Amino acid sequence: MDKETLKMLANKLMFTMKEEEYKTLMDEFDIILKQMDLIGNIPDIDKVEPMTYPFMLDNVSLREDKVVDELEIDEILVNSGSNLYNQVKLPKVVE
Amino acid sequence: MVRLMYKTVIGLEVHCELKSNSKNFSTARNSYSTIPNSNVSVVDLGFPGILPVVNKEAVKNSIKMAIAMNCEIPEYLTFERKNYFYPDLPKGYQITQFKHPIGTNGYVMINVNGEEKKILIHDTHLEEDTASLDHYPAYSLIDYNRCGVPLLETVTEPCMNSADEAVAFLEGLRSIFLYCDTSYARSDRGQIRCDVNVSLMKEGDTELGTKVEMKNINSFSSVKEAIICEVKRQSEILDKGGKVLQETRRFDEAEGVTYPMRSKEDAIDYKYFTDPNLPPIKIDKEWIEDIRKSIPKLHNERFRIYTSEYSINEKDAYTIVRDKNISDYYEECLSLSGDPKLVSNWLTGSVIGYLNKYSLTIDEIKMRPKMLVELIDLINSGKISGKQGKEVFEKVMDTGKEPAVVISELGLSQIGDEETIRGIVLEVIDENKALVDDYKNGKRVFDYFIGQIMKKTKGRANPSLASKILKEELDK
Amino acid sequence: MALSIKEMREKIDSGSVSSEELFTESVNLAKKYQDKYNPFVTIIDKYEIDKSSDSNLSGIPYALKDNISTKGILTTASSNILKNYVPVYDATIYKKLKEAGAVLMGKTVLDELAMGGTGTTGHTGVVKNPWNSERLIGGSSAGSAASVALGIVPFAIGSDTGDSIRKPAAYGGVVGFKPTYGRISRYGLFAFASSLDHLGVFARNTYDVAMVMNVIKGHDERDMTSLPDDDKNYLDTIDNEVAGKKLFYIKEILDNSDNDKELAKVIDNFSMVIKKCESLGIEVCEESIDKDLLLALYPTYMSISCAEVTSNDANLTGIHFGVRGEGNTPEEIIKDARTKGFSELIKRRFVLGSYILQKENQEKLFLNACRIRRMVVDKINDLFKKYDGLIMPAASGIAPKFGEGTDKLSDKYLMLDNHLVIGNFGGFPSITIPSGFVDDMPLGINITGRVCEDDVVLNMAYKLENTMDYVNQVAKDGEIDV
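^ Those are the sequences you sent over. The predicted structure of the assembly is below.
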C-alpha cells in the first residue's frame, strides 16, 4: 500500500491526515489486508451469494403516499452554521 | 482537404420527476414550490439516524413507465447507494438502482420524418432528486425542496443517429409520462432533464467512437443545439486527424458551445453498493397486471388508429395526440358518436385555434365534447348553416350553454320543414305575380324570389329546400 | 445498594419513594462519578415525565447512548464534528421510552461515532472501568455500561454493531442484550454499519432487560428493516422451565494449546457455567466450525462495517449541521470540517472502507466479506436446527488496562475476542450476563439464539443468572462510595 493512494483516498473522502498518521495507516493496512487474505482462502467462496441483510423479511410493505412530518424553517436551519433568506448559505459553488 | 463522413451515435439519459403526494423516501410533500425549504423532512436533510422508507406511489408510477416502455420488470426491487460529496446531496449519497432497475431491455417507437424507428431502452430506474442550489455572485444558497423528489432515470442504448431522432425520442418519452399521468414533465421547472452522449464513427466502422457526455440539459431545443454543436466540434477534430477525448462537457445554452468539465481520469468512482436500509421488495405479479390495465392507449397507438382507421391526415392526427387531454377530448367526442373526420376538423381548426388565441388548455374551455358533437350534428342535419355554426361555436365557448339553447336564443334555427317553407314560397309568389310571368319568359328572377324568402325567414330557411320548392311552385 | 427496575417500580407504586427522588438520586450519583469514570456527555438536570403512562418503566430513570437522536438535547456521537448538534427529531426508541414514562437523566459517552471497542476515543475523554479505573470498560457503548455498573441508573440503552453492548457488559459485570435485528427500530440511531447495527439494553439483571424490551420493541413504519410485532410479553416466559434445551459451544474458539494463563481462567469459568447449565437440565455440546471461517470473522466485520460507515458518515460535512468548517469554497469548508472533526482512528476506518468499496477492490474485499458473512450465518443456522443457542465466553479475558496492546493477528484475538459479531452477521438475539471474576474483574458469558426467539434467549439467561451470585451486582467502586 503506497502513501499516494491513501492520500488520494483521504482527499476524496474530504479530509487530510498528518504525515505521521499515514505511517500508522499504512501499517494498519498491512495488517488488515493480511487478514483480508484469510477471506480469499475460504474454499468455494465464489459460489456464495453476497449477504447484505442479516435475514430476508417477508412481505416488506411500501409506504402509503401521505404527507406528514414536515419541518418548520427554523428546524431546518437551527443546526446550520450559516444561513441567509431561509436557506443554508455556502461560499459560491462553482459548477 | 477531403471531408470525411461520420455517423453520429447518440445515447440519452433522461431524468424525470415523478408525480406523488410525498417524496420518494420521506413523507415531505413532493410539489414544486417557489418558497425555499417549505417541503422538507429530517430524512431529506440526511440528519444522523434517519432512515428511508420507499413510497408506494413512486414505485407504482415507475412500474407504469417501465411497462409503457416495454421493459422487463424484476421480481424484487432493490436500491443501491451512489456515493459522492456535493452540497446538493445532504446524505453524501444518492439512493438509486443499479443491480435490479425497475425496468430493463425495453423500447420506445419514434417517428422521424415519416419513418418509424425503435429506440432501445437499456434501463429505467427509480432514484431521488438532489437539492437545488441558488447561485449569487458571492455565495450559493441551498433549497432542499427538491431533495428526495422521486426521479425516474431512463437510459437509452446509443442508438440514435441525429439530433432530430434524439428530440423525437424525448418528445415521445415525455408524451408517455403525460399519457401515463406519472409526471408533469415540465422543462421550465426542471422536471425533465437530460444527459446526452455523443460519439462519431467513420462510415463503415463497426466500433463506436469515443464518447463525450454533456450533462444536465434542460430543454429539448437545447438538446438539439448541443448535439449539433458537439457533432461539429468532434468532426473538426477528426477531420484534422485528431482524437476525441473521453470526457464530460457542459453545454452553454447562451453561447451555443460546449466546455470541458472533467476528463476520464477524473471520473468519479461512485462506489455503488446495496443500501442495507432498504430490504428487497417483492413486486407482486398481480400488482403489475393491475398497473398494466391502468395504462391508457398511448400516443403512438392512437396516432395509428386515427390515421389508419379514421383516415385522419397525419398532421391532424399528430396535432391531436400531442396533447393527451386533446386526444381524450377527441375520443370522448367519438364515443358520443361524433364523426371522426368532422370532429377532427373542428378540433384541429376552431377549437385549437381558440385555445391558442386565449392561451387555454382544453380542460379549461366551456365547450364540452357533448356540445361539440351536438353542434356538428346541427350543422350536418341542416338545422343551422355552416356560417351560423361558427357563430354558435363562439357563443358556446363564451357561455358554456348548450348549442340548442344558443340557437334558440339567437333565433337561428333553420327552417327545414317542407310545409312551412312551401307556405312562405307561396306567399312570396302571391306578392310578386308580375315576376312569375317574367320567370316563365326566361328572365333571371329566381334569385330575387330566394332573397325574398330569406328576408321573410330572417335567413333561417334551408336554402336548398327553399330553392327546390320555389322551383316546383314556379314551374307549375 | 442500587435498585433494580423491579424494585424501583414496587417502591414508586407503594409510595415509599417518588420518581422525582429516584431521578435526583440518579443525577447526583452521575455528577459524583463523572469526574472519575466519565460516563456522560450530558447529564440532564430537569425532571420531565409523561405522567399518563401505566408502563412498568413509568418514573424510572435511565440513560441513552449519545448516538440516539433526542429532540432538543445535544447529541454528539462523541465526535467533535457533532459537538454542537442538537437534533430536531426523536429516535423511535426514545419516543417509546418517553411515552412509557421513563425519565431520561443522561446521554452517555461512546467511542467516537460508535467505532471502536475501547471506550477511549470519545471527544469528551476516556471512560474508565468502575471495577478498576486503570482498566477500560470497553465500547463502544462505554458510558451506558459504566452508568449501569456504577448503579447510577437501573438500565441504559446502547447500540451494538460488532459487540458494542455485549463486550462492555462483560467487562463491566452487567447484563447486555441485543435483540433480533429489526426487533427495535433503528430510526434515530446514528448509523455506523446499517446492516449490523442493533439497539439494545444494559441492566443489572435479565428480568429488567425483559421489562425494558417490552417497551422498546415493535414494528416501526419509519424503519423498513424493522420486524413485525411479535405480540409477546417477555416477562410471561422469562421463568419458564429450560430443562431439555440444548446449547453448543465452538471448540476451535476455546483452543488454548498456547497455555495462555488468562485464557485458562476464562475457560475454567466457562466450565463452571456449563455445569450450571447442566444443573438446569440444559444440555451443552461441543461443535466444530472450520477454523478459517472463524479466523475470517474479524476481517469480514471490518470490511463490511468500514465500507458501510464511509457512506453512512458522508452526511457529516458541517454544512447544514455539525461544526461548520472554514474556507473559501464549499469543498474547502467540508474538508476543514472533516479534517478537524474526526479523530485519526475514524479517518483510518473511512480510508479503509473507501478502499474496500473501490470498483477494482469491491469484488475481492467487500463482496467476498459479504459472502463469508453468509457462510457463517448459514453454518450457525444449520447448527440452530439442532440447538436452541450458542454459549461462549464473551471475551478472551477481563477488561484490558489502558494502553495494553493486542496482537491483532493472533488466533485468540481474531476468534475469542470477535466471535460476538456472529450475532450481528445473522441478526441473532444475543445476551451477555456476568459469570464470575478473575483478578477481581468481572467476566461475562454470552448466549446467542435463533432469529426472532428473543424470549427464549431471555428465558435461558434469566434461569442461568439465577444459578449464580452476580444478579444486581454493582461495581466495587460504586458500592464503596454509595
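Chain B touches chain A through 43 residues (CB under 8 Å). Chain B has a mean pLDDT of 92.

Shout if you want it in another format.
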